Amino acid sequence: MKTKPMIAAAAAALLAAGAASAAPAPVERIASPGPDGKPGLILKGVIVPAGYETFYLSGQLADPIDPARMATIDDYGDTRTQTLSVLAKIKALLESKGYAMADVVKMQAFLAADPKLGKIDFAGFNAGFRDYFGSPANPNTVARSTFQVANLVQPMFLVEIEVTAVKAPK
């Protein structure tokens, strides 16, 4: 009588061990249609199955073009330049923890008006975004929200980006 519960417990442990070693299902990226019939610039959504490791990055700001100068907007560049700077910083942070830009599934971008334009430069932001997502180097894109904000932490900043990345555990 005592052997039946022991056998059942051992069988349950073996099943659990087998399930734990199985690779999780792939991340499902739900594309949005683009104007040309190809997938759009951003995703409608992403489904991340159980078992993935998640990395949440805080909002990142641009670095100055010349580290010796960092007092005005000219020292940080326009929206496209700042977007590229922020995405390069995000890429380095991801890589430092074993992630890649292709692992990013969600992005929130905050854009302040460029004083030279009197409005946000959404096209400049998207131009920088395209260098990192939906590109030959990284064909993946992300679920994304973009917000126009009155200001960021300092007047020289036009772009702040935070991302969430996921990867299957090793």
From TrEMBL:
An example Gene Ontology CC term for this record: cytosol
Q: Is Signal given among the entry's keywords?
A: yes
Q: Which SUPFAM superfamilies match?
A: YjgF-like
Q: Does the keyword DNA-binding apply?
A: no
**GO MF terms held by the record:** deaminase activity
**Residue span of the signal peptide, if any?**
1-22
UniProt entry keywords in alphabetical sequence: Signal
Q: Which Gene3D superfamilies match?
A: RutC-like (3.30.1330.40)
Q: Which residues form a coiled coil?
A: none
Name any one Pfam family assigned in the record: Ribonuc_L-PSP
Return the InterPro entries for the record: RutC-like_sf (IPR035959), YjgF/YER057c/UK114 (IPR006175)
What is the name of the protein in this document?
Answer: Enamine deaminase RidA, house cleaning of reactive enamine intermediates, YjgF/YER057c/UK114 family
Species: Rhizorhabdus histidinilytica
